[in-house]
Amino acid sequence: MRLSGCGTALATPFRNGEVDFEAYRRLVRRQVEAGIHFLVPLGSTAETPCLENDEKVELLRITRELCPDRPIVAGVGTNSPVATIRNIRLLEDLGPDAWLVVVPYYNKPTQQGIYEYFSAIAASTDKGIVAYNVPGRTGTNMTAETALRVARIPGVIAVKEASGDLAQIGRIVKERPEGFSVLSGNDDQTFPIMGFGGDGVISVVSNVAPDLMVEMVEAAAAGDLAKAREIDSKLAPLYDACFVESNPIPVKAALSIMGFCGPDMRLPLTTAVPSTFDTMRGIIESLGI
């Protein structure tokens, strides 16, 4: 399987401290109706560190039920290979097509440690692995050299690159093995990354504006860079607004304004401050969504 296009890193709605599964169904249906190319439940945007195992199982089950015809990449990564493999075993019978596995956080592994970690995870499953490089959350950058080594591990099919370093990402795109996908992990870098050969994005912003993100990515993939650039410019204020507080606080604020779910978070994250709601309300009105 080769991943491409726009995949949404789905948010998890809460109500009175519990997962709001009906609201989650609304969110997934909206993504499918918008023509999203693949879905990514149980990632950072899902507040997965604060989900219980039974909640993870039900969220993935619903995602597969409502999205039977396109890839699902389920987040399972932790900073322990034993715990990551335990997550894979918990979820593997629920129909995901691949696993999103973050570079181990907090431990601050060496580059060799990162490589051996992904080797161990890939050897534990027959599903594809998407390696997720996000040094702003993990404290460690997976370098281009290491990413290219990881790309040659059997079973590793893609990298979600959120280092923010376009030179690093450009090298990975240029030197990657055939069939390996490079996906932007930052919405605001999707257009330039696709411009030099990247394959798409795992998006936060598409929680709020799936139609526009799908349209932008499809235009870029088709080589219509003028159209893609126009949509990208239109979305730029939303890119910024989705990160004025820790993700997914602003996304939840936007979704609540649009009536899809409440703004509730689980500690240690807290509900958006009033200025975030004001910002999101103005952007939603200007985009007509």
According to CATH, what is the topology?
TIM Barrel
How far from one another are the termini?
33 Å
Average pLDDT over all residues: 97
Shape: globular
- The SSE string, one letter per element, is EEEHEHEHEHEHHEHEHEHHHH
Low-pLDDT segments, ≥5 res: none
Strand content: 5-15%
Number of domains: 1
For the largest sheet, list the strands in their spatial order. 4-1-10-9-8-7-6-5
Total number of strands: 10
Structural class: alpha/beta
The percent range for helix content is 40-55%
Radius of gyration: 18 Å
CATH hierarchy class name: Alpha Beta
Number of helices: 12
List the helices and strands and how they pair.
Blueprint: E1 5-9, E2 14-15, E3 18-19, H1 21-33, E4 38-40, H2 53-66, E5 73-75, H3 81-91, E6 98-102, H4 111-123, E7 128-133, H5 135-138, H6 144-150, E8 156-161, H7 166-175, E9 181-184, H8 190-195, E10 200-203, H9 210-221, H10 225-241, H11 249-257, H12 274-287
Structure description:
This protein has 289 residues and is of the alpha/beta class. It has one domain (5-222): Aldolase class I (TIM Barrel, Alpha-Beta Barrel). It has 12 helices and 10 strands. It has helices at residues 21-33, 53-66, 81-91, 111-123, 135-138, 144-150, 166-175, 190-195, 210-221, 225-241, 249-257, 274-287; strands at 5-9, 14-15, 18-19, 38-40, 73-75, 98-102, 128-133, 156-161, 181-184, 200-203. An 8-stranded parallel sheet has the order 4-1-10-9-8-7-6-5. A two-stranded antiparallel sheet has the order 2-3. Helix 3 links the parallel strand 5 (73-75) and strand 6. Helix 1 runs parallel beside helix 2 (53-66) and helix 10 packs antiparallel against helix 12. The longest helix has 17 residues, at 225-241. The protein is globular, with a radius of gyration of 18 Å. The protein starts with a strand and ends with a helix. The model has no long low-confidence stretch (mean pLDDT 97).
